[in-house]
Sequence to fold (376 residues):
Amino acid sequence: MTVYTKLEVGKRRPRSNVAGRGCPPREGEVAVGKVRDNVAGETAVNWLVTGGCGFIGVALVRSLLEEGGHAVRIVDNLEVGTREDLAAVCEFVEASPADVGPMPAASGDSVELVVGDILDEELALWAAEGADVIVHLAANTGVGPSVEDPRADCFANVVGTLNYLEAARHGGVSRFVFASSGATVGEVEPPIHEEIAPHPVSPYGASKLSGEAYCSVYFNTFGVETVALRFSNVYGVLSSHKNSVIAKFIRRAMGGEVLEIYGDGTQTRDFIYVEDLIRAIMSAATAEGVGGEVFQIATNAETSVREMVDELLPVLAEAGIGNVEVRQAAPRLGDVMRNYSDTSKAARMLGWRSEVDLKEGLRRTVDWFMDQSRAG
Fold:
């Protein structure tokens, strides 16, 4: 495990004028694309990543550090991801929320963790100072938890998003990338595309749709260059804490437990490998002319849960995990029956398309889980 150091905790410093480093644009203006200028000029780009200790956040941090020239500040409440998950991919320092100051200019190749909640609006304002890009990943994730507690889902996904949009507005942040979901659209005839009128069927879909709406408002009213990415079903390496179907099934199979499929397994999903998703996030943070847009980020392939299991079982067997029992369980409230996406808009405007097919992605994911198990 990588050892990390902690910054000395101190009293909160007097607040500078947050908007001083880049005031919100005047009416009719659009925020200057500082991120693009920095990338083109090969200078450091400062990234604020909420939920950066989670599955997707850790994968993003690893990719940014591999690319080089980036400083990363993470805000995470550690309810899902952990310090150990972050330490597995990088060295970092930890700052108390009371001691957060502006991210310094040209401070590439560093990672700072701030343990805090996205509902803390003051922390959001402080954490965003000096950031060029905000990637807002922190959320109440998944249909099931939102059905169990719609109010908590609303606070996390609507108010939490609003807090960081406000931070972007007041901090002059050049680009705000919002992690949305195909659940915003609801039960429609796929493939899902960005022009379909949304009718969510779960509280999770409703809260993510609200986040998209606020992104639209902050672009059109305040000039914050927002980009909403509707993630499909993400899987892959580093997903040890993820409760989505692929990670859960791999963990259960490794533990000798039964794999339970909700319903008859004919419900379809669009499974995207995490490295493809990370490329989409990085493209959304830097592409020209995409402020205010929404993109489906998926593989454009429809796969039933039963078909996914049929692909997974041989991969598990190759890894020495055989005789896995699969059972059907009652359908889950809020689930849609068919879900896959048309990604042509992302290909056209972001220059992005998925590259890793399901079989290869499952093999990489199972190999990673097995390596983690052998390591301890």
About this structure: The CA atoms of residues 36 and 288 lie 7 Å apart. The first strand starts at residue 5 and ends at 6. Residues 5-42 have pLDDT under 50 and may be disordered. The chain is about 40% helix and 15% strand.
